[in-house]
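Structure in, sequence out. Go:
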C-alpha cells in the first residue's frame, strides 16, 4: 500500500479546507451532527493526559510516543529533524510540521508523519502529532490504537482517483474532545491567553456549540488577509477586553452559568462578517475531520 504523501499535497489539502466557500462545491453539513472531531468524551478520564479512560495498551503507546517526541518539543528541533511547517495556524489544530520522508514508510506509532505546534503560555509548543497515508477509502490499514475513539478521517480529493488521504490526530495536551479529536477547541483559548471552559460542559450540545463558536471567534485572521485585517482584529479584541476578562474569570471559577452568560454577550458582540467567518470555519473544519463514510461519500 502506498503512503507517499508530499508536503505539497498536504499543504493543498489544508489550503482547500481553509478556502473561501466559493472555491469548494460540496455542501457544508458537518454542523448537522457529530463527527469524531466534535463528539463528547468523558470529562474525567478522557479530557487530558494521561488519558486514564483509554485501554492500558493505548496509554502505554501514548507514553512511549511522548517520550520519543520529547526531543522534538520545539519548532527548531522539529525542523532539524526534517519536519517543515506546511501552512500557518489552522484553528483547532495549530501548525502542521510535515516530514515527507516518513510519509513513504508504513505507519509507525513511534514515528508520526506530522507534528502539531501551537501557542501555549506565550510560546510555540508541541501539542500533538498525526499519522498520514494514502489508500482506498475502505482502508485495511490498522489503527495503531485499540480505543474506538481512534478513527481515520480522510480527504478523497487529495489522492489519485479511487484513493484518499487518511489521517489520525493524537494530542499531548488537554483536548476538548479527547486524545484523538480531529479538532482541539482549547487551542485558540490558549493562544488568546484565556482559560479554557470545563471539559464537562462539552457533554451538553448547546454548551459545546458555544464553546466551539467562542473558540473560533478568538482566532486571528490569516496572514493571507493582510496586515490591515490583523490590525482590525487586534483593535476589536482590545475593545472587548472586559468581555474576554469575563470569559476568563468564569472559566477559572468553573462557573457554568457565568461562563454561558459571558459567552453569549461575547458572541452577540461579533460583527456579521465575524459570525459568518466562524460559521464557515466550523462547518468546513468539522467536515474535514470526518471519514468518507461519515460524509456519505462527499469529498473534502
Amino acid at each position: 500500500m502506498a503512503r507517499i504523501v508530499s508536503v505539497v499535497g498536504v499543504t493543498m489539502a489544508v489550503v482547500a479546507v481553509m478556502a473561501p466557500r466559493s472555491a469548494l462545491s460540496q455542501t457544508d453539513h458537518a454542523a448537522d451532527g457529530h463527527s469524531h472531531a466534535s463528539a463528547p468524551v468523558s470529562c474525567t478520564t478522557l479530557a487530558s493526559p494521561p488519558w486514564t479512560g483509554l485501554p492500558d495498551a493505548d496509554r502505554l503507546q501514548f507514553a512511549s510516543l511522548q517520550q520519543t517526541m520529547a526531543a522534538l518539543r520545539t519548532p527548531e528541533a522539529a525542523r532539524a529533524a526534517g519536519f517543515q511547517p506546511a501552512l500557518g495556524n489552522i484553528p483547532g489544530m495549530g501548525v502542521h510540521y510535515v516530514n515527507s520522508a516518513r510519509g513513504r514508510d508504513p505507519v509507525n506509532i513511534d514515528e508520526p508523519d506530522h507534528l502539531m505546534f501551537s501557542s501555549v503560555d506565550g510560546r510555540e509548543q508541541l501539542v500533538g502529532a498525526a499519522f498520514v497515508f494514502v489508500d482506498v477509502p475502505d482502508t485495511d490499514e490498522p489503527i495503531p490504537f485499540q480505543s474506538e475513539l481512534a478513527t481515520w478521517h480522510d480527504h478523497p480529493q487529495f489522492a489519485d482517483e479511487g484513493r484518499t488521504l487518511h489521517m489520525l490526530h493524537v494530542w499531548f495536551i488537554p483536548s476538548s474532545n479527547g486524545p484523538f479529536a480531529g479538532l482541539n477547541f482549547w487551542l485558540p483559548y490558549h493562544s488568546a491567553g484565556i482559560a479554557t471552559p470545563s471539559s464537562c460542559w462539552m457533554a451538553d450540545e448547546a454548551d459545546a456549540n458555544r464553546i466551539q463558536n467562542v473558540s473560533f471567534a478568538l482566532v486571528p485572521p490569516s496572514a493571507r488577509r493582510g496586515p490591515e485585517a490583523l490590525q482590525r482584529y487586534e483593535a476589536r479584541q482590545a475593545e472587548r477586553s472586559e468581555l474576554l476578562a469575563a470569559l476568563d474569570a468564569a472559566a477559572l471559577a468553573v462557573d457554568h452559568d457565568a461562563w454561558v452568560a459571558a459567552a453569549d454577550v461575547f458572541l452577540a458582540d461579533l460583527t456579521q462578517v465575524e459570525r459568518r467567518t466562524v460559521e464557515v470555519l466550523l462547518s468546513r473544519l468539522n467536515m474535514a475531520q470526518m471519514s468518507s463514510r461519515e460524509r456519505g461519500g462527499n469529498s473534502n
